[in-house]
């Protein structure tokens, strides 16, 4: 490669590399830069400890966590990283949105863990407690 090509390649990596890793760095360091409370920092730590590395990457990059249904093999629950509806995906299509919120205010990371554990522990009770909104296409 010529010198000019090497310079452009290096400059490209200087621009592209920070853009590629910034979402991960943001999620890991956000609690400390934003002055989060101790509870929010502990919630972020619990979330990282509860999820597998692949699940954590999915949450960072896509903004939601996919939790497979323990009873229906073709059903997946999409739990958003922040407040919002949980989408129920069956056979690749959104069929329903669920609204399930804790009674008391919790950090967003704790709410993600809450949904994941409730779905995995007792999906039937989770669905009974949820407000359901059918998706019409």
Structural summary, described in words:
The chain has one domain (36-134). With 137 residues, the protein is α+β, with helices and mostly antiparallel strands. The chain has helices spanning 3-33, 38-50, 53-62, 108-121, 123-129, and strands at residues 64-68, 75-80, 86-90, 93-99, 131-134. The N and C termini lie far apart (53 Å). A hairpin with a 6-residue loop joins strand 1 and strand 2. The protein has a 5-stranded antiparallel sheet.
Which characteristics define this entry?
5 strands, 20% strand, 137 residues, 5 helices, alpha+beta
Secondary structure blueprint with pairings:
Blueprint: H1 3-33, H2 38-50, H3 53-62, E1 64-68, E2 75-80, E3 86-90, E4 93-99, H4 108-121, H5 123-129, E5 131-134
Antiparallel strand pairs: 1-2, 2-3, 3-4, 4-5
Structure at a glance:
With 137 residues, this protein is of the alpha+beta class. The protein is built from five helices and five strands, in the order H-H-H-E-E-E-E-H-H-E.
Helix content: 40-55%
Query: Rough shape?
Result: globular
What is the typical, i.e. mean, pLDDT?
A: 84
Helix-strand sequence: HHHEEEEHHE
Number of DSSP strands? 5
Residue stretches low in confidence (pLDDT < 50, at least 5 long) are none
Radius of gyration: 19 Å
Strand order in the sheet with the most strands: 1-2-3-4-5
β-strand amount:
15-25%
Number of helices: 5
For the biggest sheet, the summary is: 5 strands, antiparallel
| Category from helices, strands and their pairing | alpha+beta
Domain count: 1
| C-alpha end-to-end distance | 53 Å
